[in-house]
């Protein structure tokens, strides 16, 4: 007793292969035995349904039977899950590093109150080199002065918003990346 | 003011929810009428009012769940044509569940009618 759907034409076989991929994807939470059972039952269903369509070709009959069976979701492209894992762990690293920067910038903003001459953004004469420092930089001039504190707080606000956005995108269990990581 | 489209959405959602429970009861009722294979069950359900456009594939996961719950049994039978069919048969547990479902459904109808009487 065969539970496979025996098809003669290549066009029908291609249709059937595509359908089985979608069926397996719909049943991905089931065990291998249950998935095989669902395939066998779908094959039995198609055999009956194909006998009742008016289409003239085998592929046409199968297409009608599949249409009657209902829409099954297509499996995602094979690259999506590994890319999602990569983005997920990259986001952890970026969020960790950005979080450290936020802490440093906040600390510098506070230290600006106690050491306004040393702490700041220092600009070198070529006006290309910039450095954030807790100490006076020889040959450089301080760029922001007292505005250093609000600028650092503003930069921190932007960075925190970016961290939150990245978390929503790549780490939140409800975010797209977490969804794509699931099998 | 709620527009017609909004009302349609609300009704569609309600019908979808109501049909889920009803669908299971209907399936069990079909199997209780006599041993039947998947496509046979699908074909008879498609004659039921409101299920004309039934996506046939939705029947099988429900039958599978009923089998797991012990409401029906299933067995593959090789037909004379050589094509096997999977036949479903209701169990004692399934028959008892169907009787309870029918009672609950009838009771809900009575409660609804009583609400209409008091309005």
Automatic annotation (TrEMBL), chain A:
<protein>
    <submittedName>
        <fullName>Uncharacterized protein</fullName>
    </submittedName>
</protein>
<keyword id="KW-0472">Membrane</keyword>
<keyword id="KW-1133">Transmembrane helix</keyword>
<keyword id="KW-0812">Transmembrane</keyword>
<feature type="transmembrane region" description="Helical">
    <location>
        <begin position="143"/>
        <end position="167"/>
    </location>
</feature>
<feature type="transmembrane region" description="Helical">
    <location>
        <begin position="86"/>
        <end position="110"/>
    </location>
</feature>
UniProtKB/TrEMBL annotation, chain B:
<dbReference type="InterPro" id="IPR036388">
    <property type="entry name" value="WH-like_DNA-bd_sf"/>
</dbReference>
<feature type="domain" description="Transcription regulator PadR N-terminal">
    <location>
        <begin position="28"/>
        <end position="99"/>
    </location>
</feature>
<dbReference type="InterPro" id="IPR005149">
    <property type="entry name" value="Tscrpt_reg_PadR_N"/>
</dbReference>
<dbReference type="Pfam" id="PF03551">
    <property type="entry name" value="PadR"/>
</dbReference>
<dbReference type="InterPro" id="IPR052509">
    <property type="entry name" value="Metal_resp_DNA-bind_regulator"/>
</dbReference>
<protein>
    <submittedName>
        <fullName>PadR family transcriptional regulator</fullName>
    </submittedName>
</protein>
<dbReference type="InterPro" id="IPR036390">
    <property type="entry name" value="WH_DNA-bd_sf"/>
</dbReference>
């Amino acid at each position: 007793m065969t539970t496979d759907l025996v098809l003669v034409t290549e066009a029908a076989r291609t249709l059937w292969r595509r359908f089985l991929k979608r069926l397996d994807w719909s049943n991905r939470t089931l065990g291998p035995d249950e998935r095989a059972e669902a395939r066998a039952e779908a094959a039995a269903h198609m055999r009956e349904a194909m006998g009742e369509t008016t289409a003239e070709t085998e592929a046409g009959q199968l297409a009608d039977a599949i249409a009657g069976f209902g829409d099954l979701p297509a499996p995602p492209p094979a690259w999506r899950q590994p890319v999602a894992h990569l983005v997920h762990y990259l986001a952890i690293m970026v969020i960790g590093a950005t979080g450290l920067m936020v802490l440093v910038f906040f600390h510098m903003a506070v230290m600006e109150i106690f050491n306004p001459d040393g702490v700041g953004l220092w600009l070198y004469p070529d006006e290309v080199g910039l450095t954030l420092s807790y100490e006076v930089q020889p040959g450089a001039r301080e760029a922001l002065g007292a505005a250093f504190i609000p600028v650092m707080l503003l930069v921190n606000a932007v960075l925190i918003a970016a961290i939150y956005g990245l978390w929503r995108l790549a780490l939140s269990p409800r975010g797209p990346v977490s969804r794509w990581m699931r099998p | 003011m709620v527009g017609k489209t909004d009302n349609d959405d609300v009704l569609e959602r309600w019908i979808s929810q109501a049909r889920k429970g009803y669908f299971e009861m209907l399936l069990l009722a079909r199997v209780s009428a006599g041993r039947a294979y998947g496509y046979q069950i699908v074909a008879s359900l498609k004659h039921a009012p409101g299920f004309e456009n039934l996506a046939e594939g939705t029947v099988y996961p429900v039958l599978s769940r009923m089998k797991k719950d012990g409401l029906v049994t299933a067995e593959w039978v090789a037909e004379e044509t050589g094509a096997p069919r999977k036949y479903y048969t209701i169990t004692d547990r399934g028959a008892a569940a169907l009787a309870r479902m029918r009672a609950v459904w009838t009771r809900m109808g009575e409660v609804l009618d009583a609400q209409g009487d008091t309005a």
